[in-house]
Amino acid sequence: MKRRNLLRALAIGAPLATAGAVGAGIAAADTANFKVMVTEQVQNKVMVFDKNASFSDANRYKSWSPGTGGWSNLSDCRIRDTSQFGAIGLAAASGGKVGIWNITTEKDQELNDVLWSATPGGNPHALERIPNLGAFVSASSDGFLTVYAPTAVSNPSTLAKVQTVSLAGAHGVVWDPQNSLLWASGNKIVQAYSVSGTYRNIRLKASSKKVALSGLGHDLQPDFSNLSLLQVSDSYGVYSINKSTLAKATLHTTTRIKAYVKMKSGEYFYVRGDNTGSRDWGSPTVVFSQSADRTRSGAEFYKARYYTTAYN
């Protein structure tokens, strides 16, 4: 994690494409000073910073602090746009919880801003929203996806578990708006799922689209520079996947990448587990390919995200 050039050697020369629409007026455009959203597990907060400023308390743009217990060791964060609440935050925590919170005008938000939460079990690592249906899907590393569906799309309090889908080592989930598929990363695989039904009849079904990985899949994200690609990390590197052809290209061979995002500009940033301390899966540093790295003393970052409501 200390040497940025470990990951700079194999940049992919994909054509640039326009990123998805930015919702709620809060997500930064893909500019030289975009915002980064991180899960920090020592203070157990989701925090948002301008990427060109130090990741200090004074420079925080937003934060969300759910407390500990089932919310301990926050493992995922992202934001999505809704017609009812505007931008909402999505989070998963290895302590057992997944949930969403309302992103208000407050600078620092807490557990009382939560709109819905659930306890899927099995070390939750990711949560994604299926747009228009109001459903949510969590990934638990003990080996399954959990589907939560509403009776009223605009009312998250009506969400209830409707399906559990086996996926060994489930770590990442991301919605693919171009193909109306949900992609998930697990042990040595990225698998696409079709979505059928409405309200409490919403169901996932494994499609024929799947890609083999060499190790345990970790992060799974869109490529903001190319709508046709996904970015996935596993125990041994980072790869791009063509959503149509399923071709996989190796981008980097650095191990233990826990979060990886590629921007429209071609800049990418990542978190690499540093193998030290009580949280050896985390790191105090977010590494940027074209900018200064950001280190927060005493922190343990696990996920880092582009602060946008866009799916890609």
TrEMBL record:
Pfam families: DUF6528. Residues 1-24 form the signal peptide. The keyword Signal applies. This is WD40 repeat domain-containing protein. The lineage of its organism: Bacteria, Bacillati, Actinomycetota, Actinomycetes, Glycomycetales. Keywords: Signal. It comes from Glycomyces endophyticus. It comes from the Bacteria. Transmembrane segments: none annotated. The keyword Cell membrane does not apply.
